[in-house]
Amino acid sequence: MEAKARRGSLLLYLRQHWQLYVIFLGPALVITLLFKYVPMGGILIAFQNFNPIKGIVGSQWVGGYHFRRFLSSPDFMRYLVNTLKLSVYGLLWGFPFPIILAIFLNQIKSKGIKKKVQTILYMPNFVSVIVLCGMVRILLSVTGPVNGLFHSSINFMTIPEFFRPIYIISGIWQGAGWSSVMYTAALSNASKDLREAARLDGANIWQQLRVVDWPAIKDMVVIQFILSAGGIMSVGFEKAYALQTDMNMKSSEIIATYVYKKGLLDGDYSFSTAVGLFNTVINLILLIAVNKIVARMNDGNGI
User: Fold this and answer.
1) CB 3.0-4.6 Å disulfide test: which of 48, 61, 192, 291 passes with 302?
2) What is the C-alpha to C-alpha distance for residues 179 and 167, in angstroms, rounded to an integer?
């Protein structure tokens, strides 16, 4: 009865103040519909031989032809494996770094030193991807600082085996500091009384991390992991394309760069849309699967 009364008072409040919700939520809903949902109608192109002159309505319908064309392509497995390797390795190596950084930052007692360290760690996030790739190319060029340091003359950007480590390490350097902000904020809510009690009981730093810090960030870690794993096929196109060379195509050609080349460079709009839709569907399946797996492992708590 109490829950029913509370629900009734909420509905009454909404009826009395509906104008406020229209004013504040209306523009956001309209913008979301226009720029997020209306463009989704463009996926129809994937099932057509799209002709820009005839438009979506007048183009020939071919069903799943472009999907079969992509799946039967001799390079399909290479693009898929390259995308998965880049994403999975990036997740395995890159995901723990922000958590570790946040824990280390939380151990710094001096607020002045902590702010300076945070500023240094956050700065790479504001470097654009293209500038970052330019820096990487200069550092790893034949006459660059890395070769100068080791007195070698290796052109790292032309060796396929080096592409993934370069991509992942540069991504960790750029994003780990900024990604640690959420974990740092979560750690600030950790119980100070519990920490003090743990210290009085003789708990060492690792025991304090397990008993005090980990429970404070556990839910945040689970949510971020699910979101990261769900977007495992969404490898950043700009960075992969900017670091790509003719010599490292064996490792650097992923689904995102392939879609760009087929769609914008070759003008094969229907085929590139089909490939992009395939990528999105795989992402959605992975998101649902990972969420269910993590929920089972985390006492039913997922997204």
Assistant:
1) 291
2) 17
